[in-house]
Design goal:
With about 140 residues, this protein is of the alpha+beta class. The protein has four helices and eight strands; from the N terminus they run H-H-E-E-H-E-E-E-E-E-E-H. The chain is about 30% helix and about 35% strand.
Length: about 140
């Protein structure tokens, strides 16, 4: 897929997440996706594989919100197999706290799938608003 094709695919995916529909995002994750959250929070680490992303990151995150995890993308930049996305979260936690986190995701695409994500985000907001995820035995 071309850089422009990757960008358009992700524009579609994020037009759906902005409406609270995360299914296209999940469907676009490669089975061997590698998602690294940069920082020092309990959430910051590398999640290896789609199953780990769903069970250790996205599932525990979604469980803290009153509704769907709603994220809108504001900017897309594509070059080669990389798409950089600037985005904003619009969710509210079960405790009633707004979660207006901002993201910069660098996504490496492979054959129309997201193969790798590097995430830069507001780690202080994460510490202030979210409950840390449970740590599995093999989590560093």
């Amino acid at each position: 897929m071309t850089a422009e094709g990757n960008k358009e695919l992700l524009r579609h995916v994020f037009s759906e997440t902005a409406r609270g529909n995360g299914r296209p995002f999940v469907d676009t994750l490669a089975d061997d996706v590698r998602w690294t959250i940069v920082g020092t929070t309990a959430w910051a680490r590398t999640y290896q594989g789609k199953r780990a992303v769903l069970e250790e990151l996205l599932g525990p995150l979604a469980a803290q919100f009153t509704g769907p995890n709603t994220v809108s993308a504001e900017r897309f930049v594509a070059e080669g197999d990389l798409v950089v996305i600037e985005a904003r979260n619009h969710s509210t936690t079960l405790a009633g706290d707004r979660y207006p986190n901002r993201y910069c995701w660098i996504m490496r695409m492979r054959d129309g799938k997201i193969a790798e994500i590097t995430e830069y985000t507001d780690t202080q907001l994460i510490n202030d608003v979210l409950t840390p995820p449970a740590q599995s035995e093999d989590t560093p």
